[in-house]
Amino acid sequence: MTSGTASVADSLRRALDRMTPNERRAAHRLLADYPLAGLDTTARFGEAAGVSAPTVLRMVAKLGFPSYGAFQDALKAELAARAAPPLTKGLAGAAAGDDLLAAFTAAAAANLAETMANLPRAEFAAAAHLLADPRRPLHLLGGRFTDPLAEYMAAHLRVLRPQVRRMTGQPEAWRDRLLDVGRRDVLLIFDIRRYSRDLLALAERAAERGASIVLMTDQWLSPISKVAKHVLPAHVVVPSVWDSSAALMAVAEALVAAVVAERGEAARDRLAALERLRGEA
């Protein structure tokens, strides 16, 4: 069974190497339509994944759940957490008496540890490879509280490679930008609970046009995960009415470091050119 703040998706990714090929098919089906696929009956879940109902049950058992019902209860709890409004979060921790700074620090540190422990290395490497490719136009944007992370990454990435663009302004303006988005384009999107319908609509339309979506999200997975090529989840819960972006920022900075490493001499040449421009200013 999942432990601490780990989601079912976290446990699923950790268990993939221990699964049979058919169990992995069921696991990938769940991740492709998370968490709704797991709320169906075992027969329908298995049919959608192309495996038998007993295979679904064996996959669930490898996650540590004593029954399919307990597995579904965990998914239902995650659905409720996804939709939790700010007023239901963190009030007990903020209420008096305790050392809030210590509690917040401990929660943020735990988020970082859980995120890095559960982040799929192959997924991270593949996302970094996409972001490093100078032939692929890169567009970055985020939600109400995560858009500054997109701006932060864009500021670094445009130094390291060409064709880095920010999508800003109203959603109507995003749709205008889609006119020039095609199979070579990459969208890096930040989206955590409560998830943005506008970002979902944009991601779906960009995917329809052949663009590759890299999603940075929370442990419950934004609905954008259904159309994303790569999904990088981070843990966000702290004793506050708002979620923390600390672990998301760490993953963002790790991606920038990975792009520097992959670009190698080309990145150093651009950095040197920028320093020369600054010296001339």
UniProtKB/TrEMBL annotation:
Biological processes, Gene Ontology terms: carbohydrate derivative metabolic process
Provide this UniProt record's keywords sorted from A to Z. DNA-binding, Transcription, Transcription regulation
GO MF entries: carbohydrate derivative binding; DNA binding; DNA-binding transcription factor activity
Read off the InterPro entries from this record. Homeodomain-like_sf, HTH_RpiR, RpiR-like, RpiR-like_SIS, SIS_dom, SIS_dom_sf, WH-like_DNA-bd_sf
Any Pfam family matching the protein: SIS
**Sorted alphabetically, which Gene3D superfamilies does this protein's record hold?**
Glucose-6-phosphate isomerase like protein, domain 1, Winged helix-like DNA-binding domain superfamily/Winged helix DNA-binding domain
Q: Which residues form the HTH rpiR-type domain?
A: 6-82
Protein name per UniProt: DNA-binding MurR/RpiR family transcriptional regulator
Per the UniProt entry, what species is this protein from, by scientific name?
A: Prosthecomicrobium pneumaticum
